Amino acid sequence: MQKMSTFSFRAASLSFVVSRSLRTMTLALACASAVLATGCASLAPPTPVTPPDGASVEHYRGRFAVRYEQNGEARNTYGNFDWQQSGENATVQLLDPLGQTQAIVRESPRTASLELPGKAPLTGPRLEDVMHDALGFALPVGGLRYWLRMQGAPGSHASIERDPQTQRPTHLKQDGWTIDYQAYFDGSPLRVKRIDLSRDLDGSPLAVRLVIDE
User: What is the pTM assigned to this prediction?
Assistant: First the structure.
């Protein structure tokens, strides 16, 4: 009886250690695969966008995955995003898999900024330059607001291919980006559910996948 009790105690202890180790490993993996390599620190979520009178706010929530190269090494990052667009002003919140805010991106016609945990905000005239310098990759926020509407952004040429039967856009090319429309929500009006974006800039490939949840 004593041997059985000792065995039961040891088994229970081992189960506790394994369970605790698995929880620790899960948390470590979540932190390691977070949007940014900033440990598990996080930012306070941004305040909701308040549009001017008569204006509306476009709101997208979903998931993203990015494959890119940094210093010759292939890297991957993924997480969730919350995007609010009011006119020409955009606020994009990037969250890690645990739901903690790891970056806040803001863009307006005059300036762009990037906030990271424990650091002063980074600013510059072009959002893509600010993001690339800080993170090693950049999301084309300025063009995406139009591509999510299945149209080219103003100011440069865009080519759009459509499905011959449904007339839904299948591919869009603009400013060096290739946008593949992979899935749509059911019903009307037509809304994009998943798109893949790719670009090769000076031999550095970048691939982005967005899945819109709402």
Answer: 0.75
